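Data availability (excerpt). The following record was deposited with the supplementary files.
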Amino acid sequence: MQREIITTDDGSKTIRIKDWDEQYHSKHGAIQEAYHVFIKHGLDLFKNQDVHILEIGFGTGLNALITLLETSKSKFKIEYYGVEAFPITREELFQLNYISALKAKHFKKQFALMHSAPWHEQVALSDGFLLYKKQCGFTEITYEALFNLIYFDAFGARVQPELWKEDMFTIMFKALKKGGVLVTYAAKGSVRRAMHAVGFTVERLPGPPGKREMLRAIKP
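Predicted structure:
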């Protein structure tokens, strides 16, 4: 599939898949969306405590980078598992401008290491941040009761509907600890119903710029 780098409305870049007319992040602002969905409505629920995070769609590494930045401001520790079936290329990585857009030049080496680190091995990006990348399809995940928080950042249901159905959310439900949280930019009624069907308690929350709502699901 043909891919290209585009600039979103907040000046941060993302990858667009031409065949699908689908972006890795919101065209209204990649960084704005990431902070709103995954930090404000996800990570911020776990302030001052160690957190195990699973990201569905490691992609450009933006969500991992902003999580690392947040971790650097506090004493809590993160174990971050990023799952990706089709990693971005070195050429694409070099075109992303997250370090400059986030004014995070001191994290340039860590961001590069996120992408150069070997798959299926845990790597320390800092004293408080451990990264483990797993290259596989999302439906191949078999974790049970391991995570406090899931960043569900798969491509949208329009292009990959199979990732937004009950079978997928059953896998996510099993992967979470009791009281664990899943956050996603999605807000479709069918997605919310699929989450409910597998046992989640689901909240509709205000969405990021350009989107009216998003979903947060909690494992009772």
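Summary of structural features: The two ends are 40 Å apart (CA to CA).
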